[in-house]
Design a protein that fits this description.
It contains 15 helices and eight strands. By secondary structure, the chain is α/β, with parallel strands linked by helices. The structure holds 3-methyl-2-oxobutanoic acid and zinc ion. Zinc ion binds next to loops. It is found in: Cytoplasm. Its cofactor is Mg(2+). Belongs to the alpha-IPM synthase/homocitrate synthase family. LeuA type 2 subfamily.
Length: about 425
């Protein structure tokens, strides 16, 4: 059963609130094996990539960017091996990234030819800084790069009928480019590839470097969606980075602005400050009552694999996944949480209403036991809860107050958090316990 925290709608004098919410889950694309992988000190070897791929399939990701095959033999061989293993599920579509150059596009097709369905993802940067400084090219020249690449993609696909080919185009640096120019380039690419409503092109609009508040990105997405001719023949995809710490917010607002798909990485790995964290976006939806279609019911297993493959820790306070996110150190929080859990036992609440916990930890495979921690700053509620869970002892209020200094003293002396055994030891030292 779905448990979620309802927000309290308010009505403003002049309008409905909230003005917009996310009501349907987007299509998800994981770029862990590409954008994520290119940003780690030791890129994943084939075994790690395979393990990551299997994890993504297990949690329900249906579109997976598996690499940048023209970047080198390791990438190419992994992708070719994955395809040749015949183990890509029929409902999963793999995607490969390429620059707009004939040899690179051909190599990309070579790497995945024969798979049941695949996306070839071509990109070139369109914004003024890249045009002027990096490439020293005019707008026309930049548009032509995209058009030439699209023609090669079209011809390569036609020559290789064994695979259902899909195309993705990214005007890289979209969020810092002139909107009308991005639309113009995408339109030119569409003219070549002739997408239809039934077989749309994916237009991926990156905040390659996050440069403004997330509402600005959303406005750009809305403008793009409204002004792109033949919008029905395009899937609008979001690809946010996290340079200002708002990659998730930008993706969420981008969805409300009309996009269909979100690209990102688990726990936000990726270039510099990372890509949009897919776990956070998905579970934010879940807590609003929208089934994201991704399964994080055993989040510890997900973290274990991600940490192993990326060789990067998931931060202890990372939303939903971090080791500390279901803990409460302050006494008043502990007391409120305890009351929340007790109320659930008696009230059979459909909605999730335990104070200070945005989601039921059990929905992510975490247990209630880990929720309350006891240290020198905790109040009475914490140790009382632990004693009740661990020993079945319900301490009367007066006794809690009497025992509290002992708990604090022990935590101070040991200089660490207390576990159930410590608390029980302190209790036995303070009182005569009959067994
Ligand atoms: O951030 C970016 O712009 C990219 C593109 C290649 C899509 O990763
Ligand atoms: Zn990126």
């Amino acid at each position: 059963s779905r448990k979620y925290s309802p927000f309290a709608p308010i009505s403003l004098p002049d309008r409905q609130w909230p003005s917009r919410t996310i009501t349907v889950p987007p299509r998800w694309l994981s770029t862990d094996l590409r954008d994520g992988n290119q940003a780690i000190v030791d890129p994943m070897d084939a075994l790690k990539k395979r393990r990551f791929f299997d994890l993504l399939v297990d949690i329900g990701v249906k579109e997976i960017e598996v690499g940048f095959p023209s970047a080198g033999a390791t990438e190419f061989d992994f992708i070719r091996g994955l395809v040749d293993s015949g183990s890509i599920p029929a409902d999963v579509m793999v995607q490969v990234l390429t620059q707009s150059r004939q040899d690179l596009i051909r190599t990309s097709f070579d790497s995945i030819e024969g798979v049941h369905a695949a996306v070839v993802h071509m990109y070139n940067a369109v914004s003024p800084a890249w045009r002027d400084i990096v490439f020293r090219m005019s707008k026309d020249e930049v548009r032509q790069i995209a058009v030439d690449g699209a023609k090669i993609m079209r011809d390569e696909a036609a020559a290789r009928p064994g695979t259902e080919w899909h195309f993705q185009y990214s005007p890289e640096t979209f969020s810092t480019a002139e909107l009308d120019f991005s639309i113009e380039v995408c339109e030119a690419v569409m003219d070549v590839l002739q997408p239809t409503r039934e077989r749309p092109i994916i237009l991926n609009l990156p905040a390659t470097v996050e440069a403004a508040t997330p509402n600005i990105y959303a406005d750009q997405i809305e403008y793009f969606c409204r002004n792109l001719p033949n919008r029905d023949a395009a899937v609008i995809s979001l690809h946010t980075h996290n340079d200002r710490g708002t990659g998730v917010a930008a993706a969420e607002l981008g969805l409300m602005a009309g996009a269909d798909r979100v690209e990102g990485c688990l726990f936000g790995n990726g270039e510099r400050t990372g890509n949009c964290c897919l776990v956070t976006v998905a579970l934010n939806m879940y807590t609003q009552g929208i089934d994201p279609g991704l399964d994080f019911s055993d989040i510890d297993r997900v973290i274990e694999t991600v940490e192993y493959c990326n060789e990067l820790p998931v931060h202890q306070r990372h939303p939903y996944g971090g080791e500390l996110v279901f803990t409460a150190f302050s006494g008043s929080h502990q007391d409120a949480i305890k009351k929340g859990f007790s109320a659930r036992e008696t009230q059979n609440d459909e909605a999730w209403r335990v104070p200070y916990l945005p989601i039921d930890p059990a929905d992510l495979g975490r247990s209630y036991e880990a929720v309350i921690r006891v240290n020198s700053q905790s109040g009475k509620g914490g140790f009382a809860w632990v004693l009740e869970q661990d020993q079945g002892l319900k301490l009367p209020k007066k006794m809690q107050a009497d025992f509290a200094p002992n708990v604090q003293r022990m935590a101070d002396e040991l200089g660490r958090e207390l576990n159930a055994a410590d608390i029980w030891q302190a209790f036995r030292a303070a009182y005569h316990v009959q067994t």
